[in-house]
Amino acid sequence: MTSTASIAADFTARPTRGSVVRFVNSHTLPLLLAAVFIASAISTPDFATFANIRAILINTSIVGIIAVSMTAITISGNFFSLGIASSTVLAGIVFLAVSGLTGSALAGLGAAVAVSVTLGIMQGLIVGAGLNPVITTLAVGSVIYGLVAIATKGAVVTAGSVDVAWLATWNFLEIPLPVYIFVLFTAVAWFLTEHTLIGRNIHLLGANRATARNSGISPQATTIWAFIAFGVGLGVAGALNASQLHQMQANDLAGLTMDVIAAVLVGGTAVSGGEGSPTRSALGALLIVALGNIMLLHGLDNGWRVFLVGGIVVVLVVALHVLRKVSTR
Amino acid sequence: MHFSYARAWRKIAVAVLATGLLTSTAACSTSSSSAAPGAPAASHGKGTGTTDGGGALLKVFMPSTSNVYLAAASQSIKDEAKALNYTVNIVENNWDQTEQDQQVQEWLATGERAAAVLMWPAGAAAATNSIRLLSAQAPVIQFNNLVTPEASKYVTAYSGVSDTGIGKEAGANALAAVEKLKAEGVKFHGPGGKPNVVEIRFTAGYAAGDDREKAFAEATPGAFNMLAVEPTPTVDAQGGFKAASQVIPRFLGQGIDIVYAHSNDVANGVVQALEQNGLKPGKDVILITGTSSGDMTNLRSGKIWSATLQSPVIEGALVVRTAAQYIATGQVQSGDVTIESSATKPELKVEAPHTATYMMNPQVTAENNASFDIWGLSFDKLMGK
């Protein structure tokens, strides 16, 4: 027989245990990242050098920007976009073409963002109407790839003699611009997602679509906002990528979609929606690149690096899923 | 009200998606010209006696022309076939061997006859069954992907690029660069004054990368201190940047003298990674590359020391000429041959082709690319631009 005292003790203990689990859940990634960096700085030669840390940040920036911008889609319960690679290539090609025509990289950047946002709105309309987001984004990605391939005839697109490289090479304290844009983008996305009405609507829509609708939240409008944020990220990332390499072609960025999805998952955003944060997606992208870098510095072959990073991603995603379940019990 | 609004959107969305899927499917598979009745394949040992195709069909299976190299090769195949009075029908796949296998089976089921099949396998290691099935219908001339031992008994002849030749040429170019710099008094960072080399190779498991890595090593025995061989995640400039930007900081302290990248396209990414690490490509680091693909700005400015010509126009023409020679003679000469660079296109003779005919791989540099003249074509024309 359970005593009143034990029930009371159990009742009062629950929030404490829940709080601990919630704290661990929300701080697992930053804690893990900090542990990885400290341990690697001690144990891995050349890890803590400025050049290496800069390389990690540069490699994180473009995948990170897209992962951060896609987080709103996942939180809103619309899974992922599977058209990331072709959409980023399109943005890069628009950036180069418009920069070449106007002589201004900023005009190219504006055009890339405008095109990506327009495509985002179109996809948002379709997905918001209730169509499966995976099929929609996959089909749109396929259409974009086909159109880019037809329009460019597979040729390498450049901006001609116009200097677009400064967008990727301009630096402050020897850290190039894409890294600052990544940090700024993460901060803005975090603010919009956590501290604005549309951000709260995105969370609520993902957590419980029926309740959100009953509360007067428009699933369509909210989904469109999520896709607009995604479009901005794609436009910026496509332009930065194209400026970094001064060129783009239809078949580029083949592995980008999976890199971005991995970053969002490692960040702990719930695939089913309602839970997640752009900041954690940014840290997820950083952790994946850092792990690959550490293994490279230890001289592991490419096969082992891919295997181990993949394994760690699986373990992390499972652990975060279990923690989330426990904390919501 | 809201319900009907949503339903209307669903209908629009379904229509948009259906159109999109149809467009993308169409984009993945194009055929060049109307199929003409094919001529019977030349039986082994008994040819037609002429390189004139008489309108016979050459059936081509190859990956998508969404890549500039394949688009140029495809156009070259059509041009050469027209010149030799053959009809061409090209079936493209989206770099997918399963899709290509299905296309092969569908074509065989039509009963259409071809004088020869020109086959660029999407994945040579998995294409043996398709090649076997095709070989029962017509002689198979394979191009671009080297013939695997398993498929060799079904392939009549190979014609096109030699990854071994490209690796060998890149090795020779690297040795020549070192000699030139030594003569100018440049000191290298490796043990015993050897140059420190980082190799940015094609994706792990990609056969072309294996051949180029091996041939480079064999062409430069003991000449370099190889610091690392790093595979790219993808075979493009972004892949080159990703690989190089991680591996270069690791060896900054030791000093990097040469980077060998498997293609000019990949090397464009390496240039960016070197510059972001404070190194000047072309001055602090010599960048030797394989295939002359991608944007050539860095090569023309001297940031890339040299590339190796791999012309899709030559490759496309060569595979048609090999097919025409086999159809004319019904025979194959054993052994392989690498065709010489010449200002004029060689006349096609009625003689048996070799088991393997490789295209030429001359060096391309900032100095010589403007004066290229092979088969009467400039460098840009050779690259299909």
Descriptive account of the structure:
- By secondary structure, chain A is mainly α.
- Chain A has a single domain, classed as ABC transporter involved in vitamin B12 uptake, BtuC.
- Chain A is 77% helix and 1% strand.
- Chain A has 13 helices and two strands; from the N terminus they run ααααααββααααααα.
- Chain A has helices at residues 4-43, 50-75, 84-102, 105-128, 133-152, 166-169, 177-195, 197-207, 209-214, 219-245, 256-266, 278-297, 302-328, and strands spanning 171-172, 175-176.
- Chain A has a two-stranded antiparallel ribbon with strand order 1-2.
- By secondary structure, chain B is of the alpha/beta class.
- Chain B folds into two domains: 30-161 and 311-360, 3-Layer(aba) Sandwich (Rossmann fold); 164-308, Response regulator (Rossmann fold).
- Helices cover 40% and strands 17% of the residues of chain B.
- Chain B has helices at 2-28, 68-83, 97-110, 128-135, 163-183, 207-219, 237-251, 264-276, 297-300, 312-329, 379-382; strands at 57-63, 87-93, 116-119, 140-143, 157-160, 196-201, 225-231, 258-263, 286-291, 306-308, 333-338, 354-358, 363-364.
- A seven-stranded parallel beta sheet of chain B has the order 2-1-3-4-5-12-11, sandwiched between helices.
- In chain B, helix 4 (128-135) links the parallel strand 3 (116-119) and strand 4 (140-143).
- In chain B, helix 3 runs parallel beside helix 4.
- Chains A and B meet through helix 2, helix 4, helix 5, helix 10 and helix 12 of A and helix 1, helix 2, helix 7 and helix 8 of B.
Task: Present the secondary structure layout.
The complex is a heterodimer of chains A (329) and B (385).
Chain A: H1 4-43, H2 50-75, H3 84-102, H4 105-128, H5 133-152, H6 166-169, E1 171-172, E2 175-176, H7 177-195, H8 197-207, H9 209-214, H10 219-245, H11 256-266, H12 278-297, H13 302-328
Antiparallel strand pairs in A: 1-2
Chain B: H1 2-28, E1 57-63, H2 68-83, E2 87-93, H3 97-110, E3 116-119, H4 128-135, E4 140-143, E5 157-160, H5 163-183, E6 196-201, H6 207-219, E7 225-231, H7 237-251, E8 258-263, H8 264-276, E9 286-291, H9 297-300, E10 306-308, H10 312-329, E11 333-338, E12 354-358, E13 363-364, H11 379-382
Parallel strand pairs in B: 1-2, 1-3, 3-4, 4-5, 5-12, 6-7, 6-8, 8-9, 9-10, 11-12
Antiparallel strand pairs in B: 10-13
Helix pairs in contact in B: 2-10, 3-4, 5-6, 7-8
